[in-house]
Amino acid sequence: MGWLVTGGAGYIGAHVVRAFQAAGIEASVLDDLSTGFEAFVPDGVPLIKATLLDRDAVREAVQGVDGVVHVAGYKYAGVSVQRPLHTYEQNISAMVILLQEMRDAGADRMVFSSSAATYGTTDVDLVTEQTPNHPESPYGETKLIGEWLLKDAGVAHGLRHTSLRYFNVVGSGSPDLYDASPHNLFPLVFDALVEGRTPKIFGDDYNTPDGTCVRDYIHVADLAEAHVAAAQRLAAGEPIEPVYNLGSGAGSSVRQIMDTIREVTGIDFEPEMHPRRPGDPDRIVAAGELAARDLHWQMRHTLEQMVATAWEARQKAGDAYRG
Fold first, then answer.
1. What letter would DSSP give residue 321?
2. What is the pLDDT of residue 128?
3. I need a labelling partner for 275 at 20 to 30 A (CA). Which of 59, 75, 99, 101 fits?
4. Does 139 qualify as catalytic in the annotation?
């Protein structure tokens, strides 16, 4: 018995697997390695190399598990606008197969890695679970539809579930686990510095204290622990909310990120300023009170620690950073 982590060879999923191990809970992994790395999966953890669209592989993976932490999916919001059908196939068609096979196997618990992209652009200072959902990309739409699927599966065949919404995941819980995304801020800045280029800031005329966008950044190890806490709560049969925000409640500006990266890395640079990008709101920050109450959620890492652990992993990865 134990929990299956879909996408468990990826940056976030691999941290979830290790958090399960730290809690003394067995974990297995299903991952097609399209963005993940086999080396991220700890020795002794079963790995099925397959896509969630492969029904036979999914059927094999869910046999005998207590539940599933569903982290796999196509996560690039901007690119999803150009590839909507691919995004829906990867995030909705695949999830339907997973839920069907879980039902047939008697696996009746799921922790779903959702996204704060379900909210879209908001005009509130602090996003709560009651903030209306207005996703603005196929990616955000598919995450919201995924939550609907869980709700309907719960009504139809008793699936116990919760969905975790969060914004920007950074840092590293282990020097051998790094974020290789070509779209995330930390990897983009690190790559620029390593390659001798100057990092860029898009817009310094926002309605924020320093003029740059304010966003929510959370450490990946804190995020992973919240997934395990949610799985444990489901396993214990304790009351659980359908949705939790995993937010900092404060946020950091892009300028603060750049300043912290300069201090931590010791590389002196002044970011290039470029015009703001269309659609970027001034500030998006989420509250995390519900998750703190039920999932022991807290920000255990400072911004300096987020940058330092991410930079250490980037340096260790070297040329392997892009896989």
1. G
2. 96
3. 75
4. yes
